[in-house]
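dude i think i finally got it to work??
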Amino acid sequence: MHDGPHSHLARKHSLARRDSIVEDIEDHPPFYTKIMIGVLKAVFFVYDVITYVPHRLFSNPEAKKKKSERTKSKPIKEGNPASPWIHDDLENGKLIKADKTLGQIWDEAVRVHGDHPCMGTREVLKITKEKQDTGKVFEKWEMGNYHWRSFIQVNERVTLIASALKKLGLKPKNPVVIFAETREEWMTTALACFKMNFPITTVYATLGEDAVCFALNEVEATTIFTTESLLPIVLKAMKNGAKLSTIVYYESFDQSQKNEKKKSDGAELISFTDLLNKGDANFVAAKENNPTLDDIAMIMYTSGTTGNPKGVMLAHRNIVTATAGQGYDLTVEYNDTYIGYLPLAHILEVCAECVCICKGTKIGYSSAQTLFDRAPKIPKGHKGDTTVLKPTLMACVPAVMDKIYKAVVDDVNSRSPLFREVFKCMYERKRARYEEGYKTLLLNKLVFNKIGKILGGELRIVLSGGAPLSPETQRFMNICFCCPVIQGYGLTETCGGATIADLHDLSTGTVGPPLRCAQIILEPWEEAGYSPKNETPQGEILVGGDHVALGYFKNPEKTKEDFLVRNGVRYFATGDIGEFRGDGSLKIIDRKKDLLKLSHGEYISLGKVETNLLTNPIIDNICVHGDSNKAYVIALVVPNQKNVSELAKKNGIENVDDWEKVCLNPVVIKAVLDELQKDSKGKLERVEIPQKIFLCHEPWTPASGLLTEALKLKRKNIEKEFKEEIERLYN
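look at this
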């Protein structure tokens, strides 16, 4: 290890991380329970002896461990970790490149997959609105089955949209904005625009009129697709200077909105159904509409953790290259079912759906509000989308998986001491067997298949992206949902693609080797002791390949700052710090912007502290804050109302109905802080453990401006929102 002035920070990341659910489950078993657990372990021992030979024959653990530990990537120049790293399986070291545009990819999919189901939407039977005492209105949706369109049927709608937009006067390279939630019509519209060389400009559905107006004005778009519920924001943007000539809205599932009269001063307002009716089913695009590989396919506005959103220019070459690289490693199959619910304004969802289209995999659309049986819009006793669809493939962001993890822990903790101890015993049993390369068919049948039904019970692969996933949560998902959870790493600027974990890797905590379309170099950052020459190669991650974006729209200064050339190859500088393990898997260990030097000279990784503490059941969200003039860090905490209310009662607080008062109560604050500090021991260094906290009684959401659409912290916004509270904690 390079023994620079800050090599202690690098060493911290080699410490063992907690990798078990059992530490979050209450542990006060009575004597008889200990006897029962002893008997259960004895039964497992006898079972192992009896089934030793069959397990060796059918599980073949040696082969699994060999696949898990094999070399996955290597530097181009042998023995020189400062040279670019590429996937170990690349033929002659040549990266995958695109040879078709997105429109051509779609045409090929229609030709090959024809009558096979392509996109499905679940029928909404009834919407009930429940008014709360606070004045808020909660919707409950009674839903039916999924209705499917084949590739041919989707293509018919693509053709109608393309011809209708042509009739409305759009010309090649005229931008079209999509400001809408994820739904079938979103991707159908995008496919039509890809074929016609109308660059898609994406805006997150949770952003307000200021961000929408900013994007519309910057790209100078005259056409926008939105939903009925978002029309007021679009109309406000027009009043603030957005120059639109056509507004197309996707019809609402709510009949009351359909009956409302809609007006727009200065723009043609048209429903999606009416747009389809304007189209020509026999339309064939002129050659002038055929895009090239280097034409812009999307200008994707990142929600950004600071300032105005940046428009990332993604060419057809970029997206097709990323799709090919990701599809190679994901082993997506023709008979799979993918559930699409993440925002299509996020590159992770766009690329995931593009992979499915190429492979002929059907996509069933959903939303975070209807995903599970206990989702906010699903009435009690009714089925969520995963239960009905039974997906085999799913993309997740860590925030969603952390919620699933905490929900299961809470459920286990609410049961009897015997149940808790039996569950812990079985969980640890399966974890140990999993890491040894064995299958646990009996335990799956008895316990874990029932948990897996939360996500439909048929999952084959879960892909995690968008933010770091804690090893503890990753292992939990592996075990409880009986399928591999593989982390991917990438940014909008790299079309969501840089690395993806190997499907056979039994370990946790890494994001895998470079995609077959990517090469990665580790740029030294000497100030913090990071260098590819360290014993474990480390440095800022620079990603190269044909999937790297063209740059930022109308922002040449930022483009020049973040897109660099090294030895004639163009790279994107991610700002993330990574290290390559011995098997060639990349591990994200820090982020430049999240590193803070405290008054005593110690570097603190705020992101690392947050990732570790987020697994605690009493926390829903957390933002750690540091001041270079102080010797300690503090934290702003969004507590879990159920668990912290129980903690308050244990500490003598009788009335927990007024949640804001509970969060301001000094006894509760001290109890939560004590719990966090206790939980941090063994996971964090002393200087990394928050010494003071503030409890935020309202949740942080993208709508409040405190989280991005990918549910990452908008650190500057949070610090601004809670400026007075932060100052009080330091005084």
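Residues 31-50 form the longest helix (20 residues).
im so relieved honestly
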